[in-house]
């Protein structure tokens, strides 16, 4: 996997852990080992500009995903159980640490945990998952929970 991370936020973020998490998520999803992903960490003003420009909504948000290749669950750069799919440029996941920190405080966990959740969420969007409909929501959030649980096991084996 080629995962590029660029922290333009001015906030201290554990970039190494986010890259390791992204590698884990892509591996668990059967993504071709030559696939490329970009993680961009931005401040609130930059995120607000992106949110307005691309989503038509005011103010900063926690995560945005900008897919590069057309992907749908089961297609594109996703693999099957027998062999990895073709490599591809997955796209960009944009994270905003200040928004993540506020959400983490409300949820009662660390900002680092929130960034890991948001990174996983953004990657799933790049892979074609969505949560607009109840069935999609159930599938995406269930998969997100499984990926984060397996990540926690890898990080702190018994």
From TrEMBL:
Cell compartments where the protein resides: Cytoplasm
Pfam families: YbeY (PF02130)
Main location: cytoplasm
Gene Ontology annotations for the cellular component aspect, listed alphabetically: cytoplasm
EC code: 3.1.-.-
Matches recorded under InterPro entries: MetalPrtase_cat_dom_sf_prd (IPR023091), YbeY (IPR002036), YbeY_CS (IPR020549)
Cofactor: Zn(2+)
Protein name: Endoribonuclease YbeY
Native source organism of the sequence: Nonomuraea endophytica
Organism classification: Bacteria, Bacillati, Actinomycetota, Actinomycetes, Streptosporangiales
Name of the gene encoding the protein in the UniProt record: ybeY
């Amino acid at each position: 996997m080629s995962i590029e991370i660029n922290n333009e936020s001015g906030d201290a973020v554990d970039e190494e852990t986010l890259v390791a998490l992204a590698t884990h998520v892509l591996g668990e999803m059967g993504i071709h080992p030559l696939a490329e992903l970009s993680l961009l960490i931005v401040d609130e003003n930059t995120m607000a500009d992106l949110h307005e420009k691309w989503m038509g909504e005011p103010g900063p948000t926690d995560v945005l995903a900008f897919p590069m290749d057309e992907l749908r669950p089961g297609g594109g750069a996703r693999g099957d159980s027998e062999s990895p799919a073709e490599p591809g440029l997955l796209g960009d996941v944009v994270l905003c640490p200040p928004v993540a920190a506020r959400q983490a405080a409300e949820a009662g966990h660390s900002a680092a945990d929130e960034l890991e959740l948001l990174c996983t969420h953004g990657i799933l969007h790049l892979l074609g998952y969505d949560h607009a409909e109840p069935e999609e929501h159930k599938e995406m959030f269930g998969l997100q929970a499984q990926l984060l649980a397996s990540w926690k096991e890898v990080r702190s084996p018994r």
